[in-house]
Amino acid sequence: APDIYTVSKAPLKYNKTFALSFQVDNGSVDLYTKVFPHINNLKYTDGCGNDIPFTASSSFYVFHGEGENGPDIHDQLDPSFDPAYLTWESIKELYNKNYGMYNYGINTNASTISSFMNYSIKRNRSFVRRRMFGTIGGAYASKVFACPQQKVEWTESAFDNDYDLVLNNQDGGPIGLFGGDVNGAFSWMDQQYFKRREAHRSIPVPEYVDSLNTKSVDEANYWGSLYTALLPDEDDGESHYPLEIFTTDFSTIASVYGKGAADNIIVASAEEIYDYLNIRDALTVEKNLNNNVLEITFSGNVPTDLRFYALSLVVESDVTISSINVTGANNFSKSETKGLINFSWNDRLIEDPIVLAEDYTSIAELSQDQYDAWIAMDYVYTLPLDTAKVELAQRLCNIPGTTYDDGFCEMTIDTITKITGDTIICLGESTILSANSIMEFYTWSTGENTQTIEVSPTENTEYWVKGTLNDIQTKDSITVIVNPVPTILSHSLSDINHLPGINDTLWVSVQTDTLSFLWNTGDVDSSLVVDPEFTTEYYVDVISDSGCSTRQDFNVNVANTFDFTFDSVCFGDTTHLINISTYPDSVIRVLWDLNSDGVFDDAIGDTVDYKFSEAGNHLVGMKSVLYPAGIELTFNPVAVGDNPNPDFDVSNVCYPYSSNFNDASTLIVGELTEWYWEFGDGGTDNLADVSHTYSQIGTYDIKLIVSSNIGCTDSITKSTTIFKASDFELLDADGNILLGNDTTFISSGESLYVTISNASSYDSIIWDNNVRSTEYYVVNAGEYSVEAYDGPCPSSSSAYMAYSGGGSTTNKIMSLFTPNGDGYNDNWVVNDPDITAPFKVSVYNRYGNLVYESADYQNDWRGTFNNTSLPQATYYYVIEDALGVIFKGPVTILR
Q1: Count of CB atoms within 10 A of residue 482's CB?
Q2: CB 167 within 8 A of CB 142
Q3: In the chain, which stretches have pLDDT less than 50?
Q4: Residues paired with 864 in a beta bridge
Q5: Closest by alpha carbon to 109, among 101, 117, 118, 98?
Q6: Residue 281 has what pLDDT?
Q7: Taking burial as the number of CB atoms within 10 A of a residue's CB, which of 226, 351, 529, 606 is the most buried?
């Protein structure tokens, strides 16, 4: 029993530190085609070992332009719709994967006239319910509204229409420009809220997320929200989120705060996070400790119209939690070691569609308003096809001056008898046709009198049914289209005898190349190469564009085999040998030679368990005694693995560069297939040869674990010291420092004495041209470098020397110039007599990016790109002269 324990509601779902919501506005298809494929692979966990993918959301309207009753932009029927929008199928899929789908009004009109705002909000809700009804159980009714064009005037209208959370650009809500603490001095369930959201470019997204994490300390847990309108493939100069930057940003977020890293972020829709906060604040935790059993129950007034019902509890005590048992939740996950329990359950009350339809029809009749009539029409469309639906439609159509969708006012009892079933089948198939179930009697064109019939037409055929209800007879018809099946002109033998080790080819020939093929092996060519060990059945389906197929079967018969299987084990483990022979005659007995002495007296029977006395490849024999055929002998080399002899080499132990670790392990049996490195600073890797960069010098214990393909494993640990070279400076004879980014001048015919600081403290000093000395005399212009060794790590420095006479080098292409403004070699000069002017110059950096270009070069380039000085480095030029001759080479910029 504990002396001290606490039970607390996690501030955020899964007890995460902070939360991020991301939204793609306007119902853009980018959410489905660009965001979903990327972030669905980015994960955090529920803290109990289960992966949770990142999710996002969209706020969307439904009608094109300023249309108040169509056209529907999510049907994607109009090619003029630009940009492309989500389809209803993709909206359904995203919604069922916990993506947020928010009300953005009915169309692009952001008018703040009260009557229009009220209609726009209500019609979005009714039309989306109409289109989504049945695909998600009729439960769609988002409680989140996004103000069109960020106009805050829509906020109160959304609250009046029962929206709990409104997204806008208004300050003052609990979530501000750069996020907000979800644990403020308020209760989320007590009132409606607006939440500020910002375009992704208000601050670089990784920095924005870093700030949320940084602020989430001292019992604060921040929630931030970002949005964009589009994710173009390239930066179009608009305030959009380029796809490449988006994918990089969110991959970075996942690598720092997701699974396998800090795992302290939840990336989910605003609705999922908001619903959690409502549940969190609505519930009171009750605790009852009886000896060493703590019972936790809940009380409170939980809202009935939320989409997400979830709660995370954190239990802490001064003793170890031995087990957690949960009752009363649809789903839960738990972690005894963390004391974390995540609940989820389904308490949502779904509004009755008939009640909604009747209520809104009455509202339209009372107001005689076109807006109310269109809203009621949507709810009537969600009803099953029966007399109640027809009566409500007729009531709406009797309202003077109102218009509706085509066919809505023609909905009468005569349209009730509806046939459902496949309207397209393949020749030889059958389909079930069903009439509406509300009829009392049925009469089909086939003469049958049941609600459902099965038909197998050989050509396109129309079927009709007459239904009788309350002595009123109605009729409906349906045409079943029969598509032909592909014809196989010829094929390889359907029954062949096969010899193992020799390939056979199965094939089919068809008349047209528009057909596709699918073998039971998964191959999709018209032929298949096979080499089975045992008799095997194969088949191929030849498939037409309409989905109709013809199947061809093949039987590949394998002659009698004499063989046995075995598993590969490590020394000391038991090897299992199993006889898999197919015998032509009766088998009398099976004998085994396990010690390679040529005598089959070590075991008897079809299965043998044997532990070999040493590692290596053992030749095992099996003797099959048959009647009347005689004796068959079979031999196989059986591997018994030895443990690896682990070893590795380390090179380049100089900070701050990467050190190389190369596997040098040896093995007698099998091959090494797995490596696991521990570098002594928390870093790991899993390749044979790896590199690792240490953050500081020191001695580290390096551990390598190696495993063979047989599963044998061993490890070794070695100590490695990481060194850092000492810094030094270049000095002239007077002790002046020679800077690498400046120019030191010498007179032609004279020399310059150069040495390094603290020369006597180094093990070795190596100048250009491999001169080993503490001093060096410069007699020619150019760049000079030196390396000094103190232990295994070299330090280096360089400086540029030039003749005091200055001026440009003539009759050649400059390979080095110093654009530092000192009046010497500031321009790159091309003065080669072999180059015919005018000539074109292109200069590239070492990554292949163009940094300078001139169609008629005038020796005027000063090492800049976009009016900014390029860094000191070596670049590469390409010159094309007037005769088309190409000149290439390097040019170095020194500053």
Answers
A1: 19
A2: no
A3: 805-811
A4: 869
A5: 117
A6: 94
A7: 226
